[in-house]
Amino acid sequence: MKKIFLMVVATLFMVGWGATASANDGVYFVRGGQLIPISETDISVKKEVLSISLYDDGYARVVVEYEFENHGSAKTVKMGFEAENPYNTEDTLNPAGVHPYIEDFTVELNGRRLSYTNAVVEPGLLDTPFTGPKDDTPEEFVRYSYAYCFDAPMLEGVNRVHHTYRYRMSFGVGRTFEVPYWLTPASRWKGGTIGDFTLRISAPNTAKHFVMADSLFVGNEFRVTEGTGKVRHLQHGWMSLVEVALRNGTVEWHKKDFRPVDDINIQSADSYSSFDTEHYPLGSFYDRSEGYVIWPMDIELPESLARNLPYANRGYVFKKKELQKLFSQFWWYMPDPSWQPSTADFTPREWRLIRERR
């Protein structure tokens, strides 16, 4: 019987992103990862649609639609989802094998919901139970994984997998949210490529401003497919970035015969603004969730700015010229003449911004 693993691979930071933080300045909950095999020569990834939705409650939802093509005969394969333990959260090991920050975990294969079991295992080794640290490593640095295991009857030909889960987004000093997702393990499937790959990132009923390293997205461009949004490429120091601003919108990237050479790491744009002492190319960051409001060091802000942030975030077209000039400097600001001013969906944090500055 051949064995397949879906891994949520955790590292403190993705390669190339270490300039934004040190090892101990963040809280790391869950990493999302590619469905991958340990050894598989008969099954290739024909199609994958990866959808990541970002919410204001600190959670992200991942929905992945796969089409796997089994070039051999029908067989049952052992599949699993692995998530490394949280870091900097003070959580202790759960012997039941259920990750404390993963919810609504489901897998459907060819329209059939699959049941699963849980276990605590060594990182990257689904069949090896975790037996504890091998040395005097402090408990907060001990690495182990939570595994979700299931049997998957693969038919000959095309098999469709629908996989979902909800999880806490990571955060840290100077960044409101962080969502890493490993794609490079796709190379372990037959052929090492994804025949037809689509990435969708959404901000349902809110606004999000984030950046990603653009090394993964060479050749094709992002498109805003729903709601309001904009995308640009920029050079930030030695890093080349894709910057995205969305308001109740979706941005999409698509490529055929995709061979991932890097992994996705979605970071709130404040992760770059807060570590600069000079004027930076990113627009000043604002997010409706609990978090940071970071401003450029070289812009003097009027007292009225904070209480107008919730309106600017929703696209209000300001009548006062000084507010028009101020908010037009911020790249994430997207005026919407059709928006009728309303406080119905203002968050507790936004009300604090308004009331504390009256």
Could you walk me through the main structural features you see in this protein, from its secondary elements to its overall organization?
The protein is mostly beta strands and 358 residues long. The protein has two domains: 270 residues, Immunoglobulin-like (Sandwich); 51 residues, no CATH class. The chain has four helices and 20 strands. Strands 2, 3, 5, 6, 8, 9, 13, 14, 15, 16, 17, 18, 19 and 20 form a 14-stranded mixed β-sheet that branches. It has a six-stranded mixed β-sheet with strand order 4-1-7-12-10-11, with no helix packed on it. Strand 10 and strand 11 form a beta hairpin. The radius of gyration is 22 Å and the shape is globular. The relative contact order is 0.16. The N terminus is likely disordered.
Task: Based on the model shown, name its key terms.
358 residues, mainly beta, Immunoglobulin-like, globular
Topology, number of strands: 20
Please tally the helical runs, counting DSSP H or I stretches of 4 or more residues.
4
Question: pLDDT average, as an integer?
Answer: 82
N-to-C series of helices and strands: EEEEEEEEEEEEEEEEEEEEHHHH
Task: State the CATH architecture of the largest domain.
Answer: Sandwich
Largest sheet: 14 strands, mixed
Q: Terminal Cα separation, in Å?
A: 67 Å
Alpha-carbon Rg, integer:
22 Å
Q: Which term fits the overall shape?
A: globular
CATH class of the largest domain: Mainly Beta
Question: What structural category arises from helix and sheet content?
Answer: mainly beta
Number of structurally distinct domains:
2
CATH-defined fold name of the largest domain: Immunoglobulin-like
Low-confidence stretches: 1-24
Give the DSSP E fraction (strand runs of 2 or more residues).
35-45%
What's the helical proportion of residues?
under 10%
